[in-house]
From TrEMBL:
Compositionally skewed regions (Polar residues) per UniProt: 1-14
Name this polypeptide is given: Ribosomal protein L18e/L15P
Presence of the UniProt keyword 4Fe-4S in the record: no
Keyword Membrane in annotation: no
Pfam families: Ribosomal_L27A
Keywords: Ribonucleoprotein, Ribosomal protein
Taxonomic superkingdom: Eukaryota
GO biological process, one term: translation
Secretion signal span: none
Compositional bias annotation for Gly residues: 30-44
Native source organism of the sequence: Lentinula guzmanii
NCBIfam families: rplO_bact
A single Gene Ontology CC term: mitochondrial large ribosomal subunit
Length: 243
């Protein structure tokens, strides 16, 4: 019994590869006696028998590849964004269940919506929709990336406030992780700058919106700084056009 136990014990001394997992290297071009001499397994003539014949996957011998024969339709829009929609009815339902809460000091962001299970993916940002506005009874404060006009009207009619804030991928990731050690992103594309500076969109760069909010707890100082810089830039642009 002792000898059997010693043989079955695994150690560095008796480790070996599994049977059939290793093969001897095929040595070609070593004469006819090795059965791999002469053409060395390449056969007689042909493209693959020549040295330097690097044939790429999909190569069809020189004729037009099938990928080029098929017509192409449409294009990929590099600036397209996919918003994660959330309805007011769903937000109210989550508040009733106690899974969501908000206040002027701590508004609802993508982090709260994701971790509460109200949404399952943030995609490129959150968009609040006005579906089920008649079921909204709570006074909510929320900072999404987008909001429909009906949602804005319903939230403000109940005494709440919605501010659309710009998020790039890194800023959205920081929002979900709760990081506050980095400076929040600012829009760089002209289209985004113009959208977030309009009051009807409740953009965080709108001077009218910031004036209306005043010293609300959730208003960041960076919003006011960016809005002032945008106002100076617009004034310079207007002066140049006037000249």
């Amino acid at each position: 019994m002792a000898s059997t136990a010693s043989r079955s014990r695994i150690s560095l001394a008796n480790l070996s590869p599994a049977r059939g997992s290793l093969h001897k290297q095929k040595r070609v071009g070593r004469g006819q006696g090795s059965n791999h001499g002469g053409t060395a397994g390449r056969g007689h003539n042909g493209q693959k028998s020549r040295s330097g014949a690097g044939i790429k996957p999909g190569f069809e011998g020189g004729q037009t590849p099938i990928t080029k024969l098929f017509p192409k339709r449409g294009f990929v829009n590099q600036n397209e964004r996919v918003w994660a929609p959330v309805n007011l009815e769903r937000i109210q339902h989550w508040i009733n269940l106690g899974r969501l809460s908000c206040s002027p000091e701590k508004p609802i962001t993508a982090r709260e919506l994701l971790f509460s299970g109200c949404i399952h993916d943030i995609h490129d940002g959150i968009k609040v929709l006005g579906d089920g506005a008649e079921f909204l009874t709570s006074q909510i404060y929320i900072t999404p990336s987008r909001a429909s006009k009906s949602a804005i009207r319903a939230i403000e009619d109940r005494g709440g406030q919605v501010v659309c804030k710009y998020y790039n991928p890194l800023a959205l990731q920081d929002c979900v992780k709760g990081r506050t050690d980095r400076i929040t992103a600012a829009p760089t594309r002209r289209q985004d700058i113009m959208w977030y500076s309009k009051f009807q969109n409740r953009g965080f760069l709108s001077p009218d919106l910031l004036k209306k909010l005043g010293d609300a707890p959730f208003v960041e100082e960076r919003w006011k700084l960016l809005s002032q810089q945008l106002g100076k830039w617009r004034k310079q642009e207007f002066d140049v056009e006037k000249k």
